[in-house]
Structures
1.
Amino acid sequence: MSQRVLILGGGIGGMVAANVLRRRLPPKHRVVVVDREPSFSLAASHLWVMSGARSPEQVSCPLDRLQRKGIEVIYGEVEHIDPAQREAVVAGRRITAEHLIIALGGQFIPEAVEGLTDGGLTFATLDGATRLRAALSGFKEGHIVILTAAPLYKCPAAPYEAAMLIEAQVRRRGIGGQVRIDLYTAEPGPMGVAGPDVSAAVRAMVESKGIGYHPERQVAKVNPKTQVAEFNDGEKVQYDLLVYMPSIQAPPVVRESPLIGESGWVEVDRHTLETQFPGVYALGDVTSISLSTGKPLPKAGVFAHAQAEVVARNIARAVTGTGREARFDGHGACFVEVGEGKAGYGAGNFYADPRPAIRMHRPSRWWHAGKVLFEKYWFWRWS
Ligand SMILES: Cc1cc2nc3c(=O)[nH]c(=O)nc-3n(C[C@H](O)[C@H](O)[C@H](O)COP(=O)(O)OP(=O)(O)OC[C@H]3O[C@@H](n4cnc5c(N)ncnc54)[C@H](O)[C@@H]3O)c2cc1C
């Protein structure tokens, strides 16, 4: 009998899960991906759009491409999820499946900070990175303030990379002497989940560029008219250009569903990604997985990708009765772009006990080349 796998979300996790399932399942079984957006963009490359190294077209592709591989794509808003029935309502249409994967990511909520969207620009979205690139290329002198709107956001490295790429761009344009750059973060240090050594290494990378680093500074509000960012401790900082990483929350349709846990995200088995509902899996940014230190696994594409492979293999195994059980083991890696064609590279086991065992490699041209190759490979293999 034909079975259907319904994948809610066509981002990194959804695309990888769909590809692996399509390859492993006989054609009579249906693989269906739902997303509201007709186009996918690789967020890791948004920073290169910001810095001018890529055009928006180079880092995005139509989701329709999946159809060529025999994956069905439905465009529309996921309005309701009933995990007990393995069912979702998409643009008013009820879709039931034998296997349900929730890969709806995290929703940006810049509006959580008063004045932020009017007063600043973000590299987090493709549109934001495109607008920021225009603002940066016209910037001649003054104070650039980069901030994280909350301690929890996507990709722990991204705001630090953004600061270093902006600094490199400013220097390349010969206006370094006229521009001051400060980075304010709500968290106590860079990439704290990866441990104190990694955190200190990334902090040293940032400070070696002459960027002022101000940790544990939670922005309270922004006044777009006076161009002042005000922090919780009362300090007011004048800026000429404000750049931000927005905070996130689980998408409303997930928060309104019985899938939501006390963390405000979907809680899953850390190895199989199965939820409390049999046959229903959640992966990527929409989940919360607690590590041995009590901190959550970072919201990063590398984990969404690895988890999607595990979930897809196990669903294919359940359908076909062949293959071995797959388990997500907590390994992950990330490139840290530092500008001037160089990047650092951190990799290790986030599930290690008593704390994640991550090693950071010093910035070099090799790691930057690795990230470029990874980007090309990702689009070729998975889109
Ligand atoms: C600037 C930036 C740089 C980054 N750099 C890196 C990096 O270098 N390395 C790394 O590992 N990670 C990086 N990340 C993080 C990475 O992009 C995310 O962790 C990853 O995309 C999560 O994958 P996902 O499949 O869980 O969710 P997503 O990729 O966000 O996909 C979720 C999908 O669900 C859709 N959706 C949501 N709600 C609905 C709904 N109600 N109806 C229909 N569709 C819906 C969305 O349109 C989206 O396509 C970066 C993120 C940013 C913002």
Note: DSSP finds nine helices and 25 strands in the chain.
2.
Amino acid sequence: MKTALTDRFGLSHPIIQAPMAGTSTPALAAAVSNAGALGSISIGSVDAVQAGYQIRALKALTSRPVNVNVFCHAPEPRDEARDHAWIEALRPLFTRFHAVPPASLSDIYASFIGDDAKLAVLLEERPAAVSFHFGLPQAEQITALKAAGITLIATATTPAEAHAAEAAGIDMVVAQGVEAGGHRGVFDPADDPRFATLPLTRLLARQLSIPVIAAGGIMDGAGIAAALALGASGAQLGTAFVSTLESAANDAYRAALAGPRAFRTEVSAVISGRPARGLANDFMRKAPEAALTAYPRAYDIGKALNTAASAHGDDGYAAQWAGQAAPLSRTLPAADLVAALAEELDDALNHLSRLK
Ligand SMILES: Cc1cc2nc3c(=O)[nH]c(=O)nc-3n(C[C@H](O)[C@H](O)[C@H](O)COP(=O)(O)O)c2cc1C
């Protein structure tokens, strides 16, 4: 299989294992890269020191190309009154678990924009690829990373975001449809037309001159074949890798993916302050979204509420991110999943050619 993605990184399969902050691990990414696809970790939720540890842990497990992901959200000015309103809105849910909400909220995840320490770590460690979620980095960050020989990948949820990425000098775009598990990479959540994977991938493949990677609702080789048929150079799969043995997903998350709850996912912003698709739960149903404060301060209290609920054996407030095709999840080692995806992709392409 030869595509712009496999060519660029010397891969055997046109597959990226999605970076998943808190869920992907160096062991997962290494297993995927060693199996001939592109493994990823996200350093979006950790500081520069932790980022360095994680990248070095990954490099110790594989000498194959890897992708390291950062968050480029536009920092929102702190608004104490808005934070306070959200704390009070969630207080009754904390009370239910005999807990009190935090008195104030923190920006728990710093944006990569302006983060010189994280840029220095990436320039030092030089992963084959760096990918961006929620927006684009600064022009000087792009220049520095490219000068270090790093391939740059950005998530786009609309043609406008994809064109902005191409114009900024990004090398590849991930076309993330609304079916996708996890946070939507939308640059401005107030302006989200919610393109689905199929139309978005097709539009970008037609309009861009850089490679497009399809993401959202792809769980098997047939889905990857569909992405290639649309003109994509590969597919990025997140949910499919959550249930692999090497992910950091806990038992409750794994059990939910394997059971009937996997059939109902929803995009909601209440857990973190930004729209994200996950298994539908009490947090999404009961939190009064109108009072929601900004990402990532909302995520600070969202995590505290989950901790309080979990202490009482209730996992209805956990961030169990998952895409719409979550019922197709399988539990197996990541290398076996990559091998299965490659075989299914072959089968799907043969099936299509027999239809002629
Ligand atoms: C548990 C989970 C965590 C995610 N975290 C990130 C992240 O940290 N950075 C990122 O760029 N994308 C993240 N995503 C989104 C993926 O990059 C990708 O767009 C999505 O998984 C594709 O849809 P699928 O889950 O249906 O395969 C996450 C997805 C999941 C399921």
Note: The mean pLDDT is 98.
